[in-house]
Amino acid sequence: MTQAEIVLHKTKDPTRVTYVGLTEAYDWFNAWLFAGELPRALITMQRRKGSYGYFAPKRFGTRDEVEIVDEIALNPTAFRIRTDEETLSTLVSKPIAGNNTSANRAAVAITTRNGRRR
């Protein structure tokens, strides 16, 4: 059993279940589709009306700023109306799009529910 499976098995804590599951999914996609090339990121839940999620490069850092990581934000409101596959596609597509933009851009475009880009 992996550490994640042990945590999920022993707890009913929704925070741990959600974040461990999303982290495991990100790691799996990164290993199998991108040979581990995607950078580490902090996955957050952010309610942004009309979006499934967004990517923000270099958003979070340690207090001493030794390590700074990107943010992948997912909108939990969209979880109810989208399949697991669609939600996971958002998880994995955001850092790909974000890493193809200039490093000093604050955040990449957000895909809204009607397909428009902000």
- Count of helix runs: 3
Shape descriptor reads globular
Largest sheet data: 3 strands, mixed
Query: Could you please say which CATH topology applies here?
Result: Zincin-like
Low-confidence stretches: 101-114
Give the C-alpha Rg: 15 Å
**In the CATH hierarchy, what is the class?**
Alpha Beta
Describe this structure as you would to a colleague.
The chain has a single domain, classed as Zincin-like (2-Layer Sandwich). It is 37% helix and 18% strand. It has three helices and three strands, in the order ααβββα. It has a three-stranded mixed sheet. It is globular.
Helix and strand arrangement:
Elements: H1 3-10, H2 14-34, E1 41-45, E2 53-61, E3 68-74, H3 84-98
Parallel strand pairs: 1-3
Antiparallel strand pairs: 2-3
How would you describe this structure in keywords?
118 residues, 3 helices, globular, 3 strands, single chain, three-stranded mixed beta sheet, alpha+beta
Can you give me a brief rundown of this structure?
With 118 residues, the chain is an alpha+beta fold. The protein has one domain (3-97): Zincin-like. It has three helices and three strands.
